[in-house]
Structures are given as C-alpha cells and as structure tokens.
Amino acid sequence: MLLPRRPVPELRVPTLAHGDFDLAADAPERFTLISFYRGLHCPVCLKYLRDLESLISEYERRGTKVIAVSSDVAERAQEMARKVGTSLRFGHSLPLTVARQWGLYISASQGKSSINVEEPPLFSEPGVFLVRPDGALYYGAVQTMPFARPLFSELLQAIDFAISKDYPARGEYDGPVSS
Q1: At residue 179, does pLDDT exceed 90?
Q2: Which pLDDT band holds residue 5 (cuts at 50, 70, 90)?
Q3: How far is the C-alpha of 81 from the C-alpha of 59, rounded, in Å?
C-alpha cells in the first residue's frame, strides 16, 4: 500500500506526443495528477478521460500537471487519444509490474468489451493519484472495477482547499493500531 507523505514508485512511460514521461522530472508547481486507465476497450474510461481533458486548463491554473497512463500499446493509446482530445498527455505501455507497485489491481481479459473492442490479455484497473513535486504521495484512489471513480471536478475543489488551508496529506500513519 502506498502511504501519503512517502515517495511513490518510479513512473517512466513513453507518451504519444510529449517524449518519455518521467514522474521524477515532471516538475509541477504543486502536483502531478496521474490517471491510470484500463485501456481502449473501456467505455467508462473514455467518458472519464473526456471529463479530465475538459478540465486540464483548470488543473494547470492550480499548478498541476496531468497525464493519463495505461498498459495499452502505443497504437491503442493513440486511438483512445483520438477519441478523447489532444490536450491530455497520454502515457502508454505501462509495465504491469509497475502497475502493481502503484497498488493497481490487474484484470484478465474477458474477450470483447461492451463496445466490441478486444481486451488485452492482462491490464490494470483504474487509479488516480496526486503526487507532490518531491515525489511524495498526496492523494490516491484505486478501483477494482471501472465504476465509481473520483470526480475530477471534485478533485479540483479538493486541490483548492488543500492550497488555501495548506492541508497536509492524510492517511500517513503506519504504526500499531489496537483492535
């Protein structure tokens, strides 16, 4: 389990139009928002990423860089980007070993999805993370399924609150607890 205020695993992936992405070198003012998505086969991901794409300028205004990442190969990521829009950075070819380090769930193919697109043999389920410029986790949410993800508009409000109140990352305690 990743813990807030602690370093996140390395994240280096190729992107479609922005060269290689290296989280350690991203250098945002406040956060890097990473949205791990299931892949081209997922209609929920398409809708979710379109929502994110529409809010990129708002995230940037708050000193937050944004990237969407999947284990899809470049061609499938390119097709998803074509459907979503061009403002969003798309990382692809995420190794599933790295997805596991990030705490993402892994699913096996069930054949064709509801939109008749073949699922890869294995792929990661969704996760959304805010990472500080120093590489420490600020916020994280992972799902076992494509449903009920954090809303990007609400995450913007949370960032506003965190900035205005200098609110610390929570969930950092890993000491003993009593039953």
Answers
A1: no
A2: very high
A3: 19
